[in-house]
């Protein structure tokens, strides 16, 4: 925004300042039959669109003086110019007030956007580029104008020997969806390092959603854990399955089987979170072993349901070559460009992308769950912590 103002004001002010003198010159050259000096009245409103109130007043005063000069040089009595000058003064005052109101609203909007941007970054903070041997890249596009977060979300939390993550989509849109996403993310970040098994993370999110007092919304989500030894664990609560892309060119699903779709579809989907249903609705746990360089693309339906002019969905499985090449962030940028090319315009839904790349395998021994350790210590990424539970 600062760069834009810097470019506009130096170019606009000299241009407007030259307009009154040009009108006066043309008015004198054309003679009394064609009066162009009345067009001076448009200068203050034009100045109010981009300039400050002081600049608008200065240009208005210049136009008034030139209007008087035009009548004097034309040979007419000065009193005939008084009505035009009075009208010009009134227009200038109104334009200056409009310029002041515009700048005040612009400052307020900038302050609100700054606060909103900070709040959005707290809710949907970018993940680290690398955790242990795992490389991470993320991309988010909101369907709402001037927003960085909507109903889609992701979060990555480092744990000892790997990472845990969640990618999901809240039913509906708007502020209610953002509040629900914030509830899910806060619960996940707390539970990711405090529970030994991934199923318990999902139950913690379900519990947090059940305590809401606002409009109830359900959430589809994929919970995942990628260990430094290459073990990928997936729990799918009614969400599109991630795309597993092997470095050598193959695609596999979450059970290690070849998949024509190329996405990791579980043997049994769990019901969406937030429905308040019993544990019997939990999804099956799927595992795969990733080799160094293998990548996993997590996404929301903003990508998979992006349509072209004929109504065809974006083929997520076909973007595997894009996911495979370049750095993780370059791969996500390529997927974004491919989706925009498919839709021939901006996406009409929120879209979250998260890409993980397995690194060199390494074994991280977990501390025993005894002798001063509790369950959360087994997953805490701090290896030399002096804190011990009683």
Automatic annotation (TrEMBL):
<dbReference type="Pfam" id="PF07228">
    <property type="entry name" value="SpoIIE"/>
</dbReference>
<dbReference type="InterPro" id="IPR052016">
    <property type="entry name" value="Bact_Sigma-Reg"/>
</dbReference>
<dbReference type="InterPro" id="IPR036457">
    <property type="entry name" value="PPM-type-like_dom_sf"/>
</dbReference>
<dbReference type="InterPro" id="IPR001932">
    <property type="entry name" value="PPM-type_phosphatase-like_dom"/>
</dbReference>
<feature type="compositionally biased region" description="Basic and acidic residues">
    <location>
        <begin position="249"/>
        <end position="263"/>
    </location>
</feature>
<feature type="region of interest" description="Disordered">
    <location>
        <begin position="239"/>
        <end position="268"/>
    </location>
</feature>
<protein>
    <recommendedName>
        <fullName>PPM-type phosphatase domain-containing protein</fullName>
    </recommendedName>
</protein>
<feature type="domain" description="PPM-type phosphatase">
    <location>
        <begin position="134"/>
        <end position="358"/>
    </location>
</feature>
<keyword id="KW-0378">Hydrolase</keyword>
């Amino acid at each position: 925004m600062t760069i834009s103002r810097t470019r506009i004001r130096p170019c606009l002010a000299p241009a407007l300042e030259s307009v009154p003198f040009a009108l006066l010159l043309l008015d004198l050259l054309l003679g009394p039959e064609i009066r162009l000096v009345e067009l001076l009245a448009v200068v203050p409103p034009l100045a109010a669109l981009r300039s400050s109130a002081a600049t608008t007043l200065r240009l208005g005063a210049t136009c008034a003086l030139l209007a008087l000069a035009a009548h004097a040089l034309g040979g007419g009595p000065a009193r005939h110019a008084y009505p035009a000058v009075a009208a010009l003064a009134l227009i200038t005052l109104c334009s200056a007030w409009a310029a002041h109101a515009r700048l005040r609203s612009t400052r307020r909007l900038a302050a609100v956007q700054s606060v909103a941007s900070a709040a959005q970054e707290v809710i949907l903070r970018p993940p680290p580029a690398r955790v242990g041997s795992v490389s991470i890249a993320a991309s988010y596009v909101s369907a709402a104008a001037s927003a960085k977060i909507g109903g889609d979300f992701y979060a990555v939390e480092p744990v000892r020997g790997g990472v845990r993550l969640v990618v999901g989509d809240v039913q509906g849109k708007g502020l209610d969806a953002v509040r629900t996403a914030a509830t899910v993310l806060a619960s996940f970040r707390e539970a990711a390092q405090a529970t030994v098994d991934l199923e318990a993370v999902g139950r913690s999110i379900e519990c947090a959603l059940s305590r809401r007092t606002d409009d109830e919304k359900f959430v589809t989500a994929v919970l995942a854990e990628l260990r430094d030894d290459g073990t990928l664990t997936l729990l799918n609560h009614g969400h599109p399955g991630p795309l597993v892309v092997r470095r050598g060119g193959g695609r596999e699903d979450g059970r290690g089987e070849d998949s024509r779709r190329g996405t990791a579809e579980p043997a049994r989907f769990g019901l969406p979170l937030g429905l308040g249903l019993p544990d019997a609705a939990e999804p099956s746990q799927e595992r795969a072993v990733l080799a160094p360089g293998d990548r996993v693309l997590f996404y929301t339906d903003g990508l998979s349901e992006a349509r072209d002019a004929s109504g065809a969905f974006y083929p997520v499985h076909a973007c595997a070559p894009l996911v495979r090449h370049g750095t993780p962030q370059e791969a996500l940028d390529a997927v974004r460009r491919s989706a925009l090319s498919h839709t021939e315009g901006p996406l009409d839904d929120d879209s979250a992308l998260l890409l993980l790349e397995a690194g060199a395998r390494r074994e991280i021994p977990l501390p025993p769950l005894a002798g001063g350790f509790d369950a959360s210590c087994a997953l805490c990424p701090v290896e030399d912590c002096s804190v011990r539970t009683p």
